[in-house]
Amino acid sequence: MPIKSMSSPFEHFNDWFGTAKTADIQDPTACALGTATKDGIPSVRMVLLKGHDERGFVFYTNLQSDKSTDLKENPRAAMDFYWPQLGRQVRVKGPVELVSHEEADSYFASRPRASQLGAWASIQSRPLTARTDFENRLVEYEKKFQGREVPRPPHWSGWRIKPVRIEFWQEGEFRLHERLVYLRDGDAWRTEMLYP
After folding, report:
1. N or C: which terminal CB in the chain sees fewer CB atoms within 10 Å?
2. Which of 175, 179, 184, 190 is catalytic?
3. Residue 126, number of CB atoms within 10 A of its CB
4. Are 138 and 128 in contact (CB under 8 A)?
5. pTM as predicted
6. DSSP type of residue 154
7. 137 catalytic per annotation
8. Which domain does 90 fall in, by range?
9. What percent of the chain has pLDDT above 90?
């Protein structure tokens, strides 16, 4: 079925994402996140999409992690969703910004308590001599917050990619794929078809 453009790439993403959530996909929120250092050295890792609307696409992380260090030095990122069961891919590119404290607090409060404690205990991306060191830190924070809510750590928040380009890719037989790209044009979007 040919890809048809919609009124906005966000409407298009909502349509495809909704289909992915009802398909037999282990985690349709999983996506590859690409960042680069200020010198242009790239890195890619998997993250989970935790929010999306017309402002952009949000994921959460430790602000001392390698990905956050990259984004502070070079505030641009790319995100790629691939749903092989549907033969679909969505690519997002744009500058980034930190989410508001209120957004970060709200999302952090919705996480399981063990994940909240892990955000305090993990010195993300730093060398770990033994797994027991991390486990001991978890125990320390369990004791520290025993009997009360776990607050969001000051070093933990979310990043929002504010897209300037979103591409929708539909698999075709014999690698004759279909590609539709939305490009930010001021406050509006324009679309282009691309060769496969």
Report:
1. N
2. 175
3. 10
4. no
5. 0.94
6. T
7. no
8. 9-108+156-194
9. 93
